[in-house]
Design goal:
- The protein is about 25% helix and about 30% strand.
- By secondary structure, the chain is of the alpha/beta class.
- It has a single domain, classed as Vaccinia Virus protein VP39 (Rossmann fold).
- Helix 3 links the parallel strand 3 and strand 4.
- Helix 2 crosses helix 3.
- The termini are far apart.
């Protein structure tokens, strides 16, 4: 597809002909992936960088956005947390991920103790996604965003075939999240499944 990007507050959004065109394009990604080996490596890497969650009570609620096959949900569940994901295309027989859209989350206000995503580079409308995260997260909750390094970051890259949002620097995404009512509490670099920063936010 021809790509036209629109810049807004340091974040570039890919302009599709319609929301339906965006949705169809994102849904088609799953058929291009073999997640078996990736899921094993990703779960091990993510588990090692979630040690700080040890203080959460057993059964705390976690919502994973853009969760695909549910690997991140499994990692949270193994920590004794009640984890569920949503994705435009969770595939068949997915026990952990429901069909859903992070622009219009189907859950009630202030019901998630933790919201996790590594898929902000797949948003259609950044502001709307942030508003939904703020709505569903409890006032004392934690928002964990794992953000891929952008075009001008050290060890960054250019967007691939399915990214619908992009940036030159992770700093731009952090600033965008902060503008939507979040305070940055912690930021840590990681290297799998891509070079990026894990950023912890709390509602401000």
């Amino acid at each position: 597809m021809d790509k036209t990007w629109q810049q807004a507050d340091g974040i570039r959004l890919l302009r599709y002909g319609s929301y339906e065109a965006y949705r169809d394009h994102q849904v088609s990604k799953l058929a291009t992936l073999d997640l078996r080996q990736h899921s094993i490596k990703f779960k091990a890497a993510l588990a090692s960088r979630l040690e700080f969650l040890s203080t959460l009570p057993r059964g705390a609620t976690v919502l994973c956005l853009g969760a695909r096959d549910g690997s991140e949900c499994e990692v949270f569940a193994e920590r004794g947390l009640f984890a569920v994901g949503i994705d435009l295309n969770p595939g068949r027989d997915n026990k952990r991920v429901l069909p859903g859209d992070f622009h219009e989350v189907q859950f009630a206000d202030a019901t998630a103790d933790v919201i996790y995503t590594n898929a902000l580079d797949h948003v259609f409308n950044f502001a709307k996604a942030m508003d939904e995260i703020k709505r569903v997260l409890k006032p004392e909750g934690i928002f964990i965003a794992e953000i891929v390094c952008g075009s001008k970051d050290h060890d960054g890259r250019e967007p691939g075939a399915f990214e619908s949002a992009w940036w030159d620097h992770v700093d731009s995404v952090v600033a965008g999240i902060q503008r939507h009512g979040f305070a940055l509490r912690q930021r840590t670099r990681f290297s799998y499944p891509y070079n990026g920063d894990q950023c912890l936010f709390a509602p401000s």
